[in-house]
């Protein structure tokens, strides 16, 4: 595999590792078709990300930024910085990187699944939803041109166990805002059930290894004085693996951006906005662009 | 006060699911001790290695007894049951159960490896590894076709045994590593029958409809 030539994909920041797991021994992974090695320099202790060239030698180091417990890098010249997650800086926040999992799907499919509430009762039964409370009420989805992000606000859904703290199964109406700050990063904000005046933030950082093969890590920024670290991990991991099974069955694996390709319903308003946003950017990596747009390299 | 046996487990692990499923089906009480296997690698740290020097999950701690292989945990629990037929005494049926038990550990190990690779690896599982899994499933499929013709719905006896429990996770979870259920109609029928057993529990990665 070789590095993509898609300019939109190249000019973005990607999380490619968990910073605390990087050692002196180079770890091999792949980003946008290019093999990369991640290690910690023996002299300076700084984290390096370097492309692995043919023959196995390393190319020039790529830019590296450590944020949100992750190592971010890019092949291009992103015109926007890494997403700003204000909650991450609050002193009592618990920052929980939930581990990297491999998914046979495209990055945009993974983002779209994260934005979808309609599947909660069927895929995350008795956790994020349950029958008969299957209705997705109206909410607002928009492309915010000033910040170049997609937002879906005013979402609400009945959740039997919407967070690790909610053990009694009595359920609550969860109020959720979704945010797509970059084509391969998706987030949600929800009222923290154990601290109702504050919001939890959950980000999903996607590392597209190829167009149809990704790794992804959920990172949570929680207000939760109750749950153990392992409880928080396992709660999120179970949800993530339930999604993974659904995602791997979706065809085509790349996300069609043609408005006619898949029939949306009212519940898909966020997905429609995301697809429009990607089409306007001309992202061809992990997508199927509308006919005639952006001949693929 | 009764001290319950403890099960050290990771909820996404197929070997741990074998034990969870068995305990639930057989109605054996225990206390779950969740281990941060991914991403924390807690099973490789000194505190855990004092319990199981092999650094593997699941681990069963029942007083002085420590068991660290899913098949032996399930076997020991079935042996301790006062009622139920999960481990038949009849030599022929017992032999069949043991034969499938060894199969689940040896021949289905490829399924565990393929799933591990698909979930956590940098590459998809190799075609060779997937072919190895399919060969094992073909043996199971052929067996269950013959059992069905003979009027039986379970692997080793007229009623479900621990053989069915120990074989179930590898097949039920095979979509996790890109092997489809469609080519194995007899195993799909068996999988549907497993779902109807009182106490059946599922895990993420197992499709609701087969």
UniProtKB/TrEMBL annotation, chain A:
Name of the protein in question: Aromatic ring-hydroxylating dioxygenase subunit alpha
Keyword Protein biosynthesis part of the UniProt annotation: no
SUPFAM superfamilies named among the record's database cross-references: Bet v1-like
Source domain of life: Bacteria
Record-linked InterPro entries: Cholesterol_7-desaturase, VanA_C_cat
MF term (GO), any: dioxygenase activity
Pfam assignment, any one: VanA_C
Assigned keywords, A-Z: Dioxygenase, Oxidoreductase
Every Vanillate O-demethylase oxygenase-like C-terminal catalytic domain range: 108-280
UniProt keyword Transcription present: no
UniProtKB/TrEMBL annotation, chain B:
UniProt-recorded name of the protein: Glutathione S-transferase family protein
Gene3D superfamilies per the UniProt record, alphabetical: 1.20.1050.10, Glutaredoxin
SUPFAM superfamilies the record matches: GST C-terminal domain-like, Thioredoxin-like
Lineage: Bacteria, Pseudomonadati, Pseudomonadota, Alphaproteobacteria, Acetobacterales
PANTHER family: GLUTATHIONE S-TRANSFERASE-RELATED, HYPOTHETICAL GLUTATHIONE S-TRANSFERASE LIKE PROTEIN
Keyword vocabulary terms for this entry: Transferase
Domain of life: Bacteria
Gene Ontology MF terms: transferase activity
Domain GST C-terminal: start-end pairs: 90-210
Every GST N-terminal domain range: 3-85
């Amino acid at each position: 595999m070789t590095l993509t030539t898609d300019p939109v994909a190249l000019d973005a920041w990607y999380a490619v590792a968990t910073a605390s797991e990087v050692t002196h021994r180079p770890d091999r992974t792949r980003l946008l078709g290019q093999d990369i090695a991640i290690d910690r320099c023996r002299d300076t202790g700084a984290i390096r990300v370097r492309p692995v060239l043919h023959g196995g030698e390393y190319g020039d180091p790529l830019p590296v930024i450590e944020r949100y417990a992750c190592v971010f890098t890019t092949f291009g010249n992103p015109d926007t910085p890494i997403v700003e997650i204000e909650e991450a800086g609050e002193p009592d926040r618990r920052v929980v990187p939930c581990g990297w999992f491999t998914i046979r799907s495209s990055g945009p499919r993974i983002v779209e699944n994260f934005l979808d509430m309609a599947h909660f009762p069927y895929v995350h039964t008795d956790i994020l939803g349950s029958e008969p409370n299957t209705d997705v009420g109206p909410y607002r989805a928009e492309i915010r041109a000033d910040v170049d992000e997609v937002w879906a606000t005013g979402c609400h859904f009945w959740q039997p166990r919407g967070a690790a703290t909610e053990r009694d199964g009595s359920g609550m109406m969860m109020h959720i805002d979704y945010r797509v700050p970059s084509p391969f990063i998706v987030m949600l904000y929800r009222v923290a059930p154990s601290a109702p005046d504050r919001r939890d933030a959950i980000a999903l950082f996607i590392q597209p290894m190829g167009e149809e093969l990704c790794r992804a890590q959920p990172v949570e920024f929680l207000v939760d004085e109750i749950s153990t670290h392992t409880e928080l991990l396992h709660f999120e991991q179970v949800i993530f693996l339930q999604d993974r099974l659904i995602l791997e069955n979706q065809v085509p694996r790349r996300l069609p951006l043609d408005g006619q390709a898949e029939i949306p319903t009212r519940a898909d308003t966020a997905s429609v906005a995301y697809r429009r946003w990607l089409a306007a950017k001309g992202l061809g990596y992990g997508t199927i662009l509308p006919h005639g747009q952006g001949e693929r390299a | 006060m009764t001290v319950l046996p403890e099960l050290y487990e990771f909820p996404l692990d197929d070997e741990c699911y074998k034990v969870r499923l068995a305990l639930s089906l057989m109605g054996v009480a225990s206390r779950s001790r969740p281990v941060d296997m991914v991403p924390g690698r807690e099973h490789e740290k000194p505190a855990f290695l004092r319990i199981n020097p092999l650094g593997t999950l699941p681990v069963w701690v029942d007083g002085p007894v420590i068991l660290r292989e899913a098949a032996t945990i399930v076997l020991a629990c079935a042996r301790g049951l006062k009622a139920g037929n999960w481990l038949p005494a009849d030599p022929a049926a017992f032999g069949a159960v043991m034969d499938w038990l060894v199969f689940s550990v040896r021949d289905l190990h490829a399924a565990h490896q393929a799933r591990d690779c698909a979930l956590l690896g940098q590459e998809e599982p190799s075609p060779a590894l997937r072919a190895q899994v399919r060969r094992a499933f073909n043996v199971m499929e052929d067996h269950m076709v013959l059992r069905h013709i003979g009027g039986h719905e379970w692997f080793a006896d007229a009623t479900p045994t621990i053989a069915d429990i120990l074989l179930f996770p590898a097949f039920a979870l095979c979509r996790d590593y890109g092997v489809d259920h469609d080519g194995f109609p007899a195993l799909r029928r068996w999988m549907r029958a497993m779902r109807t057993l009182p106490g059946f529990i599922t895990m993420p990665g197992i499709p609701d409809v087969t």
